[in-house]
Amino acid sequence: MRSTPAEPEPDPELTRALAGAMPGGRLAGPLRAYRSVDSTQTVARRWGERGAPEGAVVLAAHQSAGRGRRGRTWTAPPGAGLLVSIVLRPPLPVPRWPEVGIAAGCAVAEAVEATTGLPVQLKWPNDVLAGARKLAGILAEGCAGADGLVILGIGVNVSQAARDWPPELAGRAVSLAMLGRPVGLADLLGAVLAALERWYGTLLRGGFAPVRDAWRTRAVLGQVVATARGPGTAVELAADGGLVIRYPDGATAVVTTGTPLEPAGSPVA
C-alpha cells in the first residue's frame, strides 16, 4: 500500500519573521511559512479541509509543483517570488466565487503600486501585467460543500533575473527586480494582505459593482483572443465577472473563468 507523503513542517523562523504582515480583520491568520512545499495551494487546501479558519495563510519560499490557471506551472527560484495561498470561506453563492479572484486582482495591483510606485494593469481573469509582461498571477480554487472553501493563490515575481525564466516565459514574464523596483518580501506580503482584506470586505459588503469598477480602471481590453467560436475582441468585464467578447459579425458573448481563452493565433486548449 502506498504511504501518504508526510505533511511538511512550517519553518518557525520564517513564520515569526512574517507574522507581523497579517492585517487582522478577516485576514487575521494564522500564518504558516515554509522553506519549500509542493504547492501552497495544496497545503492550504488540506489545511482548510481540516478546519483552518478564514484568513489562514500559507507562504513558501519555494514550491516544487506550483500551479496556475488551467494546470499551468508557476515557476520561481527559491526566495525569488511571493508565493502565498489564503483560506477563504466567502458567504456567497458558489456562482459568485469567481468574483473573489477579480477582487484579489485589484488588491495585488494596488499593493504593487503602493510599495513600488510601478503602474500595472489587469488582464482577465488572473494576470497582473507590467507593460505587456506578466508580473503576478492569481488562482482562486473553490471547494463546494457544507463549509464552502476558496483557496486563493497569489504569486508575484519579486527578484527573478532574466536568466531565471524557462524558454517559454522568456520575454513574457518580468519581476520587480528586473524593472528596478526591488521590495522586501515582508513589506510586499503586508501590502498584498492589507489590500486584499479591504477589497474582500468591499466585495462582501458592497457587492461586485465597486470591485468591477476598480478592475476596469486598470483593465487590458481590446485584445483579439481565440475562443471555441473563433476569434473575437475582449471588450468589457461583465456584471457577473465574465469577459465580454465581440465577434466580427457584431455578436457578443460572455465567457467565464472556465472557458479556454488564448491570444489569437495560439491553439485553444
Structure overview:
With 269 residues, the protein is an alpha+beta fold. The protein folds into two domains: 12-217, BirA Bifunctional Protein, domain 2; 224-263, SH3 type barrels (Roll), CATH 2.30.30. 25% of the residues lie in helices and 24% in strands. The chain has five helices and twelve strands. The strands form two sheets. Strands 1-2-3-7-6-5-4 form a seven-stranded mixed sheet. Strand 10 and strand 11 (252-255) form a beta hairpin. It is globular, with a radius of gyration of 18 Å. It starts with 11 loop residues before the first helix and ends in a 6-residue tail after the last strand. Mean pLDDT is 89; it is low at 265-269.
What is the helical fraction, as a range of percent?
A: 25-40%
The dominant shape is globular
**The named CATH superfamily of the largest domain:** Bira Bifunctional Protein, Domain 2
Share of β-strand residues: 15-25%
Structural class: alpha+beta
- Mean pLDDT reading: 89
CATH top level assignment of the largest domain: Alpha Beta
What order do the SSEs take from the amino end to the carboxyl end, as H and E? HEHEEHEEEEHHEEEEE
Judging by the overall fold, what is the CATH architecture of the largest domain? 2-Layer Sandwich
CATH topology (fold) name of the largest domain: BirA Bifunctional Protein, domain 2
The radius of gyration computed from the alpha-carbon positions, rounded to a whole number of angstroms, is 18 Å
